[in-house]
Amino acid sequence: MTQVHSSHKGELLLQERRNTPQEVTDGIPHYISRDMPQPHADFFAGLPYLPLATLDQKGQPWVSLLITKSDGDPSVGITVSGENTTDVLAETNPFDPFARALQQAPATGDAKRLFAGVGIDFNNRRRNKIAGSIHKANVDATGKIQLRLSSDQHLGNCPKYITVRKLEHIQRRAELSYDSFDNSTSALPADAKTVVERASTVFLATKHTAQDTASGTQTDMGVNHRGGAPGFTRIYEEHDDDQVTTYLVLPDHSGNRFYQSLGNIEMDPQVGLVFPDFATGDMLHIAGESENLTDDDAEALMPRTNLLTRIKVTGAVMVKEGLNLKLTSEEQLSPYNPPVRLLRQELEQMGHAPLAEGKAAISATLVSTQTLSDSIKTFNFRLSSPISAPLPGGFGVFDFSGLLDRGYSHMNEANPQLVNEDFVRTWTLSSAPQFDPNRNAFRATDKVSVTVKRKPGGLMSNVLHDNASALAANTLPVAFKGTGAGFTCFQEGPDGTAPTVPPKMLWIAGGVGVTPFMSMWDGIVQIAKANPDQMSTDIVLLYAGRGDDINVLNHFRPPQGALPDHVTLRIIAFQSVKNSLTEAQSARDGLRQKFSDNVLRLEVRGMEIANIRSVANLNDREVFMCGPDSLMMWCETSLTELNVEESRRHRESFIF
User: Which Gene3D superfamilies does the protein's record reference (predicted)?
Assistant: First the structure.
């Protein structure tokens, strides 16, 4: 293996900023080979598709996914010969910007035309990077491409974040639906944005122009695969009168810490992307100007992210059915994919953007727990300083990284999710702050509670349940990052008056999704006791729980001291029993001893649409829902069937 590649200034900058160990930085040149290893040659020769990029005459990278095996043309394929020469005969479509760039003069002004690619096999997640120069390029009218590539950079890549899928060749009829190859534009049509929003695979092309060849760096390009759960690439627009500027945001998932693509971006912002839609055959090619954001800048745009790339769209080509491949299997997402991170503005629209409590760091220390069921506990924390708590139903953000983060891990087959784990959790606060009747407002508080269900295979829920005693006994603090109140039945009242709630409500909850209603009910009770004339509401709670999980309803026991007649809560609980019949019966018996029949009704079955239909004055009620996705989808369908206005539906989400 002949050493050729030296990390350039941009790569070194990112490596330093992201704390890449010096031994890794020093070892990078030894991972990149000038000569193509024989296993790489065999791999490329068998590929049925190949992502490749080059530059147009303006120096703009364009990347495509070329077809290198064809049922109708046996001449299509890849041949690797000696001296790092690779001949490619490939299918694409006549609108492909990669093919169009090949027909222009090289960007460098001489005969040398750069290329980069990443061989990828979606059957087994294998991939190898390649880069060099194009010695011959011919494109015919149908988009068929003949290339002779001379490569001088070869690097094997890990399989993380690649979606497994089976693909077969199909001859499609390409149709150009959007084209700004020759002119600049930053607006994208709706169908192009849809491709981005559902993509789990994107290819990113970058470039670097060497200023000091004596240092060992060289002018080159790079193509890399970026993958994640569908929607991992976020998209947003900025509007200035009639001018639309579109941005794509790619969060950085933990990789090999070479930072080749992001290092190139540090030196040259021009990038190219292609989003292949394997279900439809559509191809979206993007040209853009990019920038890397780190730490606070990244967090400001996308919470819980400390490194991302933002790309301002400057051009796009959308080709309907431009990819001669068809999907013949279900897609298998990588187990390494982290959860999709939303933009701060998306969270704000949902009411889920955390509000930090000033610049001073706040810690939370566990002081006690209460067991509600075999799998559900309430954890009570004391904060290092009081916060202006959100209205009941809001959430808190807890950061356990100071206790649990053990540093970088490249691969972890036993628990892939740990590779990108940030140890931050957003939980609904199941406690309401104390209400001050003199100010008609909830007080600042240094006590918060969260009610958490142990999730099989879940990291933080099991850490809390298994280590609560040690956390409390050793007073081990965790960082408290902020709060928010996206899901609440309360509205702030006019100056000097108490917060208000709707006069009639339907609450629908499943499992631990009852937690926001626990704090809402506490807030209602406090205001009703302090100012009986300022609180009037009629609530029906439909709750679905498994086994002894229904014990969480003990939180709603009639409070000591009478409530005004115009504050009522009626609960209908639906218990599913799968394991211990005795445990389930005991839970029902216990609840019946604590609730009167006119407050609680228990049913050993699932919730049905008839139960919603039978709620008195249904169409006059504001409906609040929180629970598993399956229950929420059923609720939405049922409420639509029952003609409940969408404006009256309020749904909590666990995706933040």
Answer: Electron Transport, Fmn-binding Protein, Chain A, Nucleotide-binding domain of ferredoxin-NADP reductase (FNR) module, Translation factors
- C-beta separation of 374 from 546 below 8 A: no
How many domains would you assign to the chain? 2
Burial 443-458 (b: 16+ CB within 10 A, else e): eebebbbbbbbbeeee
Range of the domain at 466: 351-652
Question: Among the residues of 279-367, which ranges form H helices?
Answer: 295-301, 344-350
Neighbours of 594 (CB within 10 A): 13
Last residue of a domain, one of 313, 346, 379: 346
Burial per residue of 1-35, b for 16 or more beta-carbon CB atoms within 10 angstroms, e otherwise? eeeebebbbbbbbbbeebebeeeebeebbeebbeb
pLDDT digits (tens, 9 = 90+) for 383-393: 999 998 889 99
Which of 346, 369, 404 is at the close of a domain? Answer: 346
Please tell me whether residues 329 and 420 are part of one structural domain. no
**Cα four-point dihedral sign 250, 251, 255, 261:** positive
Is residue 522 helix, strand or coil? Answer: helix
According to DSSP, residue 492 is labeled P
Q: Assess if residue 423 is contained within a domain.
A: yes
Tokens (6 digits) for 573: 């609980």
H/E stretch holding 455 reads none
Summarize pLDDT for 383-428 with one digit per residue, the tens: 999 998 889 999 999 999 999 988 888 888 888 888 999 999 999 9
Taken as a whole, the chain contains a residue count of: 656
Q: Which two tokens stand for residue 521?
A: 């009910």
Give the torsion through C-alpha atoms of 371, 374, 376, 382, to 10 deg: 30
CATH of residue 224's domain is 2.30.110.10
And the tokens for 142?
A: 């149908």
pTM of the predicted protein model = 0.89
**Per-residue tokens: 379:** 């954890």
Q: Residue 494's domain is classified under what CATH number? A: 3.40.50.80
Per-residue pLDDT at 579 exceeds 80: no
Q: Reduced to 3 states, what is the DSSP secondary structure of residue 86?
A: strand
Q: Which residues, including other chains, have CB under 8 Å from residue 145's CB and lie 6 or more apart?
A: 66, 88, 89, 90, 91, 92, 98, 99, 102, 137, 138, 139
Q: Which amino acid is at 439?
A: R
Same domain membership, residue 362 and residue 334: no
Closest to 272 measured CA to CA, from 221, 237, 200: 221
